[in-house]
Amino acid sequence: MSQPVGSVHVGERALVLGGSIAGLFAGQALAEAYREVVVVDRDRPTAATGTRRATPQAFHAHALLARGQRAIEDLFPGITQECQAAGVPTGDVGADLRWVINGRRLPPMRTGLVCLATPRTVLEQHVRARVLALPNVTLREGHEVQELVTTPDGRRVTGARLFDLVGGESRVLPADLVVEATGRGSRLPLWLAGLGYRPPAEERIKIGLGYATRHYRLPLGLLGTDLAYIVAQTPSHPRGAVLARERALPDGGERYVLSLNAHLGDHPPTDPDGFLAYARTVPVPEIYEAVRGAEPLDEIRSYRFPSSLWRHYERLTRFPDGLLVMGDALASPNPVYAQGNTITAVEALVLRGQLRRGGEPRPVEFFAEAAPIVRAAWDVNVFGDLAYPGIPGRRTPKTRLASAYLSHVHRAAVHDPAVAESFLRVAGLIDGPQALLGPRMVARVLRRSRRPGPRPTPAAIHS
Q1: pLDDT tens-digit profile, the chain (463 residues)
Q2: How many CB atoms lie within 10 A of CB 277?
Q3: Which of 37, 56, 332, 463 is close enough to 328 for a disulfide, judged by CB 3.0 to 4.6 Å?
Q4: Claim to verify: residue 136 and residue 163 sit in the same structural domain
Q5: Mind telling me which Gene3D superfamilies this protein's record contains (predicted)?
Q6: What is the CATH number of the domain that holds 287?
């Protein structure tokens, strides 16, 4: 098999465990450096036309953060335009999304940051098509990873033992590099322990998050030219929602997704009456008015996310060569903040950058370089989630101060476009949290946060 033009040869075969978003991103990066890339998945993703068993979260509302859009465009040049041409709504993060925090809308502002409001299934289909079009990438579906294979001293991973779920046969597939991307349920900590390595320390925030989602046929132009309502959860307004355009329908209407969510077990019901009653409690009455008489396109589905999780591989001092970890297998943050795909895309850029510098990527160096993007996202999780008194966790003076300050940012943002834009840039992982901590910004936030803000008006939705 031939490598893409302009690539550098690092090894003969790379093996990616997991064929969802993280595995596909890894495959794209690895294809430049390995003569053959094999992506393995227990499921059969190419046969799926909707939500797969392995990715139940794909049924619910999704969008890419601004940094995620940039990273994916870097990995797959032209994919934003490709998605637009396929009907995926795209707009400016500040001008074309209606952000509501504490029941009050942020002022619209042009940020220059692109929101690609693509459903998870659509994004995965486009990415998979790009990756599998590469001449040196193959996908082995219906194969379960049984164990890692190593050198006799266990210091290097040399492949994996795969079980063919259809043929019933087990065989070892050798590889120069193995990337673990099987997701949150990764068995790598157990495998490492079995090889005599210390498993990574795990950091968890027990949030008790629950989603419920339904898709509707709604009139064309319901939100005008805007893409969505994003109703953020906060301690004072703990029930959140996303009402977003997904695509045009053949009959002239539009397909919308409505996802309702809350922490601490306050989960939206899945019966139609209960779902609508819950929607009515969200602090944007226009959402309930839009869907209460609308035509549903499917049944209501729920999704539970008990805790955010970060496995600290970057803290390990011993780790086998020939093995990396990406995606939810490394860090699985609160999906309310929509960070997962962005973190994974940036990890793939880290991997590609190390490969382009020549030589096999070293695990310690990879984890160290990937950790800052995870940390930036994790801090958003910690400061936001630990503001809820009922969420257990260690609240250091720094955490308490940051959570209190974040509430001031939320209040100030409804008055001040500059604060709102800075907040959206931090939430989109374009800037780090320090962007909100400069002396001038702090003074601005504290001054503007004292004023009450305007509520969304009934005219915001067009009938």
Answers
A1: 666 655 678 899 999 999 999 999 999 999 999 999 999 999 887 665 566 566 677 777 888 889 999 999 999 999 999 999 998 989 999 999 999 999 999 999 999 999 988 888 889 999 999 999 999 999 999 999 999 999 999 999 999 999 999 989 999 999 999 999 999 999 999 999 999 999 999 999 999 999 999 999 999 888 988 999 999 999 999 999 999 999 889 888 999 999 999 999 999 999 999 999 999 999 999 999 999 999 999 999 999 999 999 999 999 999 999 999 999 999 999 999 989 999 999 999 999 999 999 889 999 999 999 999 999 999 988 888 999 999 999 889 988 998 899 999 999 999 999 999 999 999 999 998 889 999 999 999 999 988 654 444 433 444 3
A2: 14
A3: 332
A4: yes
A5: FAD/NAD(P)-binding domain (3.50.50.60)
A6: 3.30.70
Residue 247 belongs to a domain? yes
3-state class of 155 per DSSP? coil
Place of tokens 């009938």: 463
Q: Is 6 left (phi over 0), alpha (psi -120 to 50) or beta?
A: left
E-strand ranges in 106-192 read 114-116, 137-141, 143-150, 157-164, 170-174, 177-180
Which of 306, 336, 361 terminates a domain? The answer is 306
Residue 152: its H or E element: none
Q: Does the model's pTM come out above 0.90?
A: yes
Token pair belonging to 225 = 């030219």
| Residue 348 sits in the same domain as residue 418 | no
Q: How far apart are CA 176 and CA 163, in angstroms?
A: 20
Q: Are residues 187 and 41 in the same domain?
A: yes
